[in-house]
Amino acid sequence: MDRGGQRDIGMASILRFDSAQTVEGRRWVVGLHVSSDCRRVSSAAVAAVGRGLDVRLHIAGGVTVPVPAEIGGRFDEVAGEIGRGDSLPDQMAAIKSGLVEVQAAAVGELLSRANLPAGRVLAVGVLDPSLWSTERGGLRDYWELGDAARLAESTGLNVVDAFAARDLARGGLGGPLTAVPEWLLLRSVQRNQVLVDLGRTTRLTWLPAGTGNSSAARIMSFDVGPGTGLLDLLTQRLSGGKQPFDHGGRLGVQGRRLTELVDSWLASPYFETPLPRWNPGGVDARAFFHDAMEKAIDAGWSVRDMLCSAAHFLAEATVRTIQRFLPESCLSGPILVCGGGQHNGMLLREIGVRLPRAELVRVSEMGIASEALDAASAGILALLHLDQVPANPPSVTGTDLCRVLGRLTPGSPQNWQRLLNDLTGSTPAVRPLRSAL
User: Fold this and answer.
1) Residue whose C-alpha is closest to residue 271's, from 307, 222, 309, 340
2) pTM for the model
3) Domain 193-366, CATH 3.30.420.40 — does that match?
4) What distance in Å separates the CA atoms of residue 65 and residue 236, rounded to the nearest whole number?
5) Among 125, 33, 212, 158, which residue's Cα sits nearest to residue 423?
6) Labelling 118: which of 90, 166, 225, 350 has CA 20 to 30 A away?
7) In what order do the strands lie in the sheet with 407-409?
8) If you average pLDDT over every residue of the chain, what do you get?
9) Alpha helices in 326-368, H assignment, sequence order
């Protein structure tokens, strides 16, 4: 879901903010999402009617703003040092302060364009890639890039962040955390659906039909394998670094399928990793890339043919994973596609060829830009926190116990009081946490 660098507005459900503000029972949240490479911040306004898992949601608008190159570069440096096991450098302070300025600007621009008063916003939910490390014994820990206190001071809005912390405390993987929000946004009462996120890592999310706890308990979401990150590496190699990604799949379609290479990639031990399966940094495409380049030297393969083969590989890995882990009905039902790969015509064609009875629908065709979906998911996580609804099903994160996720930081006294009034007026369903979701 990390494609693009220009400011744009993504509309999912077009609402008139001036009249919508008078509708009784409508609550507003804002979501902020920092791209996995810390190069963009996307924001979205989400209107909610109802509470908990029975809520009805509309993405009212989104804004994406670039992060200064200096901040993104610092993130790359710090992430590399974490990967080598070194301590966090002082650059973290610069990343946090610089990123908060961008986030506050994104919120301000969003509210201005939407003509939505800050006083109507209950809270801002924040998701960022964070810096992750794995201790001995496999325990994960992370450091968020944002600063909730500074963001609350800058905007005056209540902030909910640190969604992964409680899941990690219960033995979960810490993600993927957007599965429940995506289900709430895209679910169908009548039929099951699959969401295929063709981002830098390919991820599948099973969206069971229906509403309420029984349906939410069946949500599945996990990494399939490498995604457009592999296509990007090959495209950059083919173009000498002049082209960051294969626009529309126009380069890959000019090549030929290398069966030996595709079969080699599909034989990777990664695909035998049991569920739940999620990596904070995504599936590293570099190992697959270097494997291909080593084989290419002996076999005399062209980079163009390898790029074509990569599209076949991603399509085949996706379909095999659907066939292995999801109900057979998925092979003939709606398959929703998001992420940068939804714009790669060749990749979508190859998926469609392998699923001739399925209906492939780009999420963008539904009026939801990828950046808006990411940001809206952050806002919905904040809403679930306020409604005291757990958002980490064991089938998704591997947690041993569902918990309400997030940490609430008060904004201005006025906004904090408005939120307290809203919470006082709510009567969330009380149920044992072990039976939640």
Assistant:
1) 222
2) 0.90
3) yes
4) 24
5) 158
6) 166
7) 56-66, 40-49, 26-34, 121-127, 159-161, 407-409
8) 88
9) 345-354
| Residues 130 and 280 sit within 8 Å (Cβ to Cβ) | yes
- Please tell me the distance from the alpha carbon of residue 194 to that of residue 395, in angstroms, as a whole number: 15
Band (pLDDT 50/70/90 cuts) for residue 79 is confident
Place of tokens 């590989």: 313
Residue type, 300: G
> Would you call 334 helix, strand, or coil by DSSP?
strand
Q: For the chain, what are the domain ranges?
A: 17-174+385-435, 193-366
Tokens 């995506």: give the residue.
182
Residues 216, 181 contacting (CB under 8 angstroms): no
Superfamily of domain 17-174+385-435: ATPase, nucleotide binding domain (3.30.420.40)
pLDDT of residue 104: 97
What tens digit of pLDDT does each residue of 320-378 get?
999 999 988 888 888 999 999 999 999 999 999 999 999 999 998 888 887 899 999 99
pLDDT for res 186: 94
Distance CA 320, CA 358 (A): 14
Does residue 156 register a pLDDT over 80? Answer: yes
Measured CA to CA, the distance from residue 346 to residue 251 in angstroms comes to: 9
